[in-house]
Amino acid sequence: MKTLDFLFVRNIPRWVIFFIDMGICLFSLVLAYLVRFNFAIPQIAINEFPLVFTIVLGTRAISFYISKTYQGIVKHTGARDSQRIFIVTTAGSIFYVLINIITSNFINGTFPVPFSIIIIDYMAATFLMISLRVMFKAIYFELINPNKEKRSVIIFGAGESGIITKRTLDRDAGTKYKVLAFIDDDKKKQGKMLEGSSIFGLDKLNELLQNNNVAHLIISTQNLLPARKQQIVDICLNYTAKVLTVPPVTNWINGELSFKQIKKVQIEELLGRDPILLDKVNIQKQLSGKIILVTGAAGSIGSEIVRQIIPFHPKKIILVDQAESPLYDMELELYDKYNQQPCEVVIGDIRNKERMENVFKTFKPQIVFHAAAYKHVPMMENNPSESILTNVLGTKTLADLSVEYKVEKFVMVSTDKAVNPTNVMGASKRIAEIYTQSLSKVSGTKFITTRFGNVLGSSGSVIPRFRQQIENGGPVTITHPDITRYFMTIPEACQLVLEAGAMGAGCEIFIFDMGESIKIVDLAKKMIKLSGLVLDKDISIAYTGLRPGEKLYEELLADHEKTLPTHHQQIMTAQVKEYNFDEITNTINELIALFDKQDNKSIVKKMKLLVPEFKSNNSVYEALD
Question: Which of 407, 440, 427, 449 minimizes the C-alpha distance to 581?
Fold first, then answer.
């Protein structure tokens, strides 16, 4: 036991490894002579031993000392250790060849070290030094965790990334896991072996999971389509296997993958669609060299718009938000990634006309992306005056200043809740849409509205809330078992905002293809399973009832609205009711003036006059319909 403790638990002293390597070199040299002379070494060769052994072993000792091959921890031998040994033994053998050439040509015409001996010694020494280290490492891992106690891992992707993943697993977590198999869609690879593991098609995954104790399936493929990833996850969720993903190469530490970097699949990865194809030439033409103002720049949508604008090389981006801490975090992020250029961070409230006018006067923006808004339905249902002040007055202030300071384009981020609104928030956004679209017809500024549904991962989204509830042990709360929503990832939504902004000619309301609506209860169940928990055993789901203003189903178009296609298959133009600018301006001003009275019912009543399709749901304002 003491011997095992010395060999496997403690690290073997460097001098011991050095002398073992020298012993291997001595053995290899003797073996070379025995093989060369069929185990009957002639006396003349024996007489040359002192010179040959001095040259060979002396060279090996010096090269090992210089290259420090003996300093590696043997039980953690990796590819780099093997590469170093190969280079050092190769260099030593080349040195023998050079000695032979110099001696035969310039000294006595003989070869001190026969070429056949050099070749055999080189092959034997290299093989033994590397293989013994690898064997020692294998014995060490088997002793501290026998192979039968290891849990199996399946890697999806038998390409370069899959090989790196397996080697990372062997290096960092070889004591706990073993690679059972690879799964790959390439039929040319199926049926073959990769680093000792078989490669199968996806059709074999069920069988592998059913017959083996598989801990994880690791998706190593970087550009796997969401639909394919969804299919893999659905299969794994029927068993106990957790699904992990390898991060992009850019996130690896010093260019090397670590097992700790391999993370669980997030629900956002499964709800995304195929990559959006953008007209980058047109977007570049619209944004390059321009001064761009982004409101709500510290929020989920606003901050992502900033990130996606920067690669198009604008002259300057002005980030406006009233939230100090999130804006500070955004400033630090921009400084780390881009040395903050070309960004200017401004704390300001869009409801404050004097502050906003100073921003427009100082920076003279050419394009405005308006993402600032109050968006939480229950909060706005209880505070309609604040909804009017931010979503209506704030938008009106920015729109009026855009016209005054000759902004080229004003792109407003709206919501599907503005369609047949059942709550104050949705109605306030619809009023903002009406004002900007009416203003677009009488001004030189092009006003464009983009309308989409729920954004995954944004503040207020169900995803972060469900994740927190799962971490806290539940229950996961859902308002209604039949409630559904459209979902889009933050990058998807912002890409389409940029695309719509670039293609817009003014007055349009662009709606985005949100895909299929998703039942929230199904979303919650999948998140619970992805966390490795069992529904109704480890965690439960509780129904709390619809909140004020909430509806079961969201819509992207009102009943009387129709859509027209655009050149982008995921963007359509809504044909909406038109309003007279002067009339709508007077009515909106009357609505804003009601703020001073702080009479919620009067405010909501006025909103319903402005937006006839606004019918309250599960709200005290139903009495006003």
Answer: 440
193-194/197-200 β-pairing: antiparallel
3-state secondary structure of 72: coil
Going from N- to C-terminal start, the domains of the chain cover 2-144, 147-265, 280-473+481-516+546-624
Give yes or no for a contact between 415 and 460, defined as CB atoms under 8 angstroms apart: no
Q: Is 314 helix (H, G, I), strand (E, B) or coil?
A: coil
Which among 332, 292, 337, 333 is positioned nearest to 312, based on CA atoms?
A: 292
Question: Are the CB atoms for 314 and 340 separated by under 8 Å?
Answer: no
Tokens standing for residue 218: 């690791």
Q: Which fold has domain 147-265?
A: Rossmann fold (3.40.50)
For residue 562, what is the DSSP state? E
For the question of residue 315 being annotated catalytic, the response is no
What fold does the segment set 280-473+481-516+546-624 form as a domain?
Rossmann fold (3.40.50)
Residue-wise pLDDT for 572-622, tens only, equals 888 778 889 999 999 999 999 999 999 999 999 999 999 999 999 888 898
Confidence of residue 72 (pLDDT cuts 50, 70, 90): low
Per-residue pLDDT of 351-398, as tens digits, reads: 999 999 999 999 999 999 999 999 888 899 999 999 999 999 999 999
Q: What is the mean pLDDT of residues 554-565?
A: 65
Q: pLDDT tens-digit profile of 434-445?
A: 999 999 999 999
Would you give the end-to-end CA distance of the chain in angstroms? 85
- What are residue 291's DSSP bridge partners? 316
Exposure string of 25-57, with b = 16+ CB inside 10 Å and e = fewer, is beebbebbbeebeeeeeeeeeeebeeebeebbe
Contact, 485 vs 548, CB < 8 A?
no
Q: What is the number of residues in the chain?
A: 625
Across 66-95, average pLDDT: 75
Taking the C-alpha atoms of residue 193 and residue 190, their distance in angstroms, rounded to an integer, is 8
Give backbone dihedrals phi and psi of 249, rounded to 5 degrees, phi first: -55, -35
Secondary element (H or E) of residue 485 = strand 484-485
The per-residue pLDDT for range 25-42, each reduced to its tens digit, is: 888 888 888 888 888 888
Q: What are phi and psi of 256, to 5 degrees?
A: -125, 135
Q: pLDDT grade, residue 122 (50/70/90)?
A: confident
Other Cβ atoms less than 10 A from the Cβ of 497: the count is 25
Residue 613: other Cβ atoms inside 10 A: 16
- Residue 438's nearest CA partner among 232, 588, 313 is 588
Half-sphere exposure of 280 (CA within 13 A, CB side): 8
Distances (CA, A) of 520 to 82, 221, 310, 525: 53, 29, 34, 9
Catalytic pick among 417, 446, 529, 606: 417
DSSP secondary structure of 119-187 = HHHHHHHHHHHHHHHHHHHHHHHHHHS-GGGSEEEEEE--SHHHHHHHHHHHHHHTTTEEEEEEE-S-T
**Is residue 417 scored above 60 in pLDDT?**
yes
147-265 and 280-473+481-516+546-624 share one CATH topology?
yes
How do beta strands 197-200 and 151-156 pair? unpaired
Q: How remote is the C-alpha of 140 from its chain's centroid?
A: 36
